[in-house]
Amino acid sequence: MFENLMDQEFPFRKKGSNYLNTSGLSIPPMSVLRFLHETYIRIAINPELEFDYDDQLNQITDHFRNIMNQKSESFSFLRNVTEGLMIAAQSVTFNNKDEIIVTSLEHRVALNCWKIRQQQEPKLELKIVEVKITPDYTSLDIILAIKSAINKKTKVICIPHIDRYYGIVFPVERICSLANENNIYSIVDGAQTLGLIDVDFDYINCDIYLSCLHKWYLAPMTLGTISVNSRVFNQLLRSYASSSRWGDLQFSKREFGGRELGTRNVALEHSIGELITFHNRFDDYINTPTNIKEYFVNELAKIPGVIIIPTWQMIRNYGIVTFYFEDFDTKKIINLLKERYQIIVGISSREIDMLRVSLFFYNTYLQVDELLNGLQHIISADNRKK
Questions:
Q1: How far apart are CA 234 and CA 228, in angstroms?
Q2: With b meaning 16 or more CB within 10 Å and e meaning fewer, what string describes 78-101?
Q3: Number of domains, the chain
Q4: What's the pLDDT score for residue 237?
Q5: Which of 64, 150, 160, 262 is the most exposed place for a label (fewest CB within 10 A)?
Q6: Predicted pLDDT of residue 230
Q7: 66 with 199, same domain?
Q8: CB of 184 within 8 A of CB of 151?
Q9: Which pLDDT score is estimated for 385?
Q10: What is the CATH number of the domain that holds 300?
Q11: Does residue 131 lie in a domain region?
Q12: Which domain range does residue 231 map to?
């Protein structure tokens, strides 16, 4: 019964591509896409409906505060994590030669938010300190590496909760505690979390937490969240203008009301309610233990020449598996998978290019077998680097 319902919600399971790249972008359920389409039509017929959705938006924001254990009122939807990081980077008041700690596993586009701020004020001589983190690092290794980079000029620590390259879960609560002890702003990139793992904002106790809903939470594109700790709201969000038509000029009245800045995509926000309904209906099935990821890793290891990137901690049910083949062109393998077998996987580019497979509840063992067979055929055909 559940599998039949999933076939209806995610048609790619029966026709179209074999999609194994949720860490890049999720596939929203058809029920949510239909609801989104119908809402656009309703607003086109009656534009005043925009204002009738405010009560539901309040319920939606309350839902996310609850699932993220966020008691603070400082919460809003935005387009993505990068937008949130740009707001954060532009909001911090820096002094001369202040330092920003990031890690080698931060998304390069997110890293650009800090580089842009650095370039905007060259006289400040801001320094971006990149802490190298490798997949074999334990939780303690990560903490010690970041701790060793802290000095009296450190102003910001910006870290991923789960990195996009290997799926490493960072010990964010301990790193944020370290930041708090040293009077350093802590910003957490949670693009890969909501829908995959539990997020406890109060326990993490960071200053800003950012997330994407259009990855593991299955929302349509351009939906993310920003949560700001009440202790730093007036310090960090100095450039923030709320969506209120009347309160923006009074700084004390600025607050996140769950809305994007300025004109909002009301239909998109409204569709989150339908997505919550989907999760309420199916999360018990979605969270049922499975060994599909373990099965894939074990079978993948049997293919000659494969190098699977080991991580000290792997999320049990779902998540990211990163690997490559010695002497083979990763980009060529990815293109061949797509062209010959209609299989979509991601690419993870660090020191070398690697294949990144994301497994989620809507992926089946049949799809995994199709990927394994495709890889076997490509490797056996000797598509080595020339």
A1: 10
A2: bbbbbbbbbbbbbbbebeeebbbb
A3: 2
A4: 61
A5: 262
A6: 80
A7: yes
A8: no
A9: 55
A10: 3.90.1150.10
A11: yes
A12: 32-278
302 shares a domain with 256: no
Give the position of tokens 């389409």: 37
Is the Cβ–Cβ distance between 126 and 115 less than 8 Å? no
What pLDDT digit, counting tens, does each position of 299-356 carry? 999 999 999 998 766 666 788 999 999 889 999 999 999 999 999 999 988 778 999 9
pLDDT of 251: 47
Tokens 């820096």 -> residue? 94
Overall size of the chain counted in residues: 386
Euclidean distance between CA atoms 273 and 269, whole angstroms: 8
Q: Do residues 91 and 212 share a domain? A: yes
One domain for residues 232 and 333: no
Would residue 164 count as lying in a domain? yes
Can you give the chain as a three-state secondary structure string?
A: CHHHHHHHHCHHHCCCCEECCCCCCCCCCHHHHHHHHHHHHHHHHCHHHHHHHHHHHHHHHHHHHHHCCCCCCCEEEECCHHHHHHHHHHHCCCCCCCEEEEECCCCHHHHHHHHHHHHHCHHHCCEEEEECCCCCCCHHHHHHHHHHHCCCCEEEEEEECECCCCCCECCHHHHHHHHHHCCCEEEEEECCCECCECCCHHHHCCCEEEEECCCCCCCCCCCEEEEECCCCHHHHCCCCCCCCCCCCCCHHHCCCECCCCCCCCHHHHHHHHHHHHHHHHHHHHHCCCCCHHHHHHHHHCCCCCEEECCCCCCCCCCEEEEEEECCECHHHHHHHHHHHHCEECEEEECCCEEEEEEECCCCCHHHHHHHHHHHHHHHHCCCECC
In this structure, the answer to whether residues 84 and 228 fall within a common structural domain is yes
Torsion of CA 373, 378, 381, 385, to 10 degrees: -150
Residue 57 backbone zone (phi > 0: left; psi -120 to 50: alpha; other: beta) = alpha
Beta bridge partners of 194: 197
CB atoms within 10 A of CB 355: 24
- Asked if residue 275 lies in contact with residue 67, where contact means CB atoms within 8 angstroms, the answer is no
Spans of the chain, pLDDT less than 70: 51, 72-73, 236-263, 312-316, 382-386
Predicted pLDDT of residue 311: 76
29/49 Cα distance (integer angstroms): 24
